[in-house]
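Shipment paperwork, digital attachment
Item: protein structure file
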Amino acid sequence: MAENQAQTGASMLRPERPLLIALEGIDLSGRTTQVELLRDWLTAGRYHVTTTAWRTSPLISDVLTRARLGPPLRPLTYSLLYCADHMDRTQQVIKPAQQRGEIVLADRYIYTAFARDTARGLDPAWVRDLYRFSMKPDAVFYLHISPEEAVKRRLAMQRQHMEKAEKSGGKSGKGKDGKRSDKGKRRMVGAGLAPALAPSRLNPALASYKGSGIPALSPTAPILTGEALESYRNFESRMYIEYQNMQKEFEFSVIEGNQSIEQVQATLRRAITRLMLHNNG
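Attachment content:
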C-alpha cells in the first residue's frame, strides 16, 4: 500500500491535533486490510487521512524489491535500507501530514524494524538508536497471531494462488504454437518452479482467508516449500518473541488477529473513536 491522501470533494475535518496511528504484527496478521478499512471509515467521516506503508519510499522501494528477490544481503545492509525507507517517508509523508493536522495511518512502523533486525541478530539498542529520528505514534495496535497461524495463512495463500494459476493456465499458459510457455512462471523456493499468475489477473476476492483479511500472494513473492518454509516459520517465531517483549515497553494495544475482519475493524474503530474524543478533550 503506497502513501495515499484520502480526500473527497466535501469539506474535510481535522482532529484537534494531528494523530499518528500505527498497526503492527508479524506477517499476515491482517494489518493492510485493516488500515484500508480505517482509511475508508475516517474519510467517510470527512477526516483528512494519509496512509503510509513499510517499503514504499520512492527513493528506496525499487532497491529493496531487488534486494528481496536477489541473493540474501547481510542483516546490517537490510537494516540500513529499511531505515532509509522509513526516514524518507518520515520527512516526505508523515511530518508534512502531521503539520497539516491530518490523521496518519501507518501499515507497520519502527517496531517492525525492532523485531526484524533483532530477529536477524543485530543489537537491539543499536537498532533503536538508528530510528531515534522517528515520531512517536499516538497509538500502536498490535494484531496478534501466532507464528503457526502465519504459516497456515501463507500455505493457504499459496494453495489459492496455485489453484487459480492452474485454472487460468489453459488460457494464458500457451504460446502462439499452442505449447506451454515458461513466461511469467513464479519462483518456487525449495522445490523448482510453479506457474505464476499474471499480476493483472490477481483476484481481489482472494483478499481474505477465512475472514482474516489476508492479502492475495504478491506477484513477486516466492512459493515456499521444504527448508525455505521452515526458515520462514523460524523467522516468524523469532519476530513473534520480539513483538511479545515489546508489548509492555511500548504500550501496544493488543487485538487478537484470529477474529473476523469485521470484529477486528469494530475494535479498532472503537479504540480510535476514544482516542479522538480524548484528543479533543
